[in-house]
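re: that chain from earlier
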Amino acid sequence: MADIRGSYDELFTAVPSALAELLDGGDVGGSVAVFVDGEPVVDVWGGFADAERTVPWERDTVVGVYSVTKTMTALCALVLADRGELDPDAPVVRYWPEFGAAGKEKVLVRHLLSHTAGLPDWEWPVDELYDWATATGRLAGAAAQWEPGSAAGYHSATQGFLVGEVVRRISGRSVGEFFAEEVAGPLGADFHIGLGAEHDHRVALTVPPPGKDEDYLASAPGGGARASAATGLRVRDGNSLRWRRAQIPAASGYGNARSVALVQSVMACGGTVRGTRLLSQAGCDRAWEEQFNGDDLVLGMPIRWGLGYGLFGTTYGWGGWGGSLVMIEPESRMVVAYVTNQMREPAQDQRGLNIVMSAYDGLTGLRA
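^ sequence. v structure.
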């Protein structure tokens, strides 16, 4: 059986066992954390940080979590909204006047957060993702593909620039700086949007699915409901230094399960974790406000979108390309986070869901 390190409450033994099964089944490495009331009841890791399986996955190994980063960017917007500096119902042009080009004057901030703004595709070279002014300028000049709010289409690469530019216009700081100073710093969370060179030695590079190489392309979990003009993102792009250094707030966040669970415990615990208050309860509840319920044009499947999070029954959260996931259960004040460097084909990847279900086994015992 795979060697699982870390600590866990005996009620939650199903969680490290689930991680061990994944590693025994061929996965390279990963970490899992379960936080209840802002404290870890599971904090475990195992496997290797490299495809060659020569470097052990350590306590402080970090990995690119791709679209799990969206939950961090959403939190930044919710913090500003809670302070009264950002109105989700305001037109985006109130904060970002140039965004009104090509008839987008009626796009609201909440449309950006809920994937209903009509700008789902990154249609330009991947290289332009690495320059903030270029990326946001492209999106400001683009026309919406549908009437804002009338449909949803997952804004895979674009959402972070859209929300992040609003954060920047209001705060005067990049979303990476805002997150570091207002969220990660106060919480002591090892999560980064834009990773400094001093952390490079801790990074576990993404490993393509079995049988694939670094030219493996990103695809929607549902296989996509329509032909997309989007520029393809490859594993080699996500593993590049340029990607690591850039602030791509929809997809270029780095952390481990512990840091993901700690940050999102803010949402699970009414805005306060370990004595640090980032949001009011009302500010947290905004994430629950349903913005869309129906078939997502890009994902090709039914989904409910809140303000920055996917809504799933009594939980909310999101997953990332390659398998990483965070799920928030406010009723139980629980967060489950799973991060991995091992990709699988999206249509066959149930790993995160299985980890979440194993955590519920422990929660049942905790409530007893």
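The mean pLDDT is 95.
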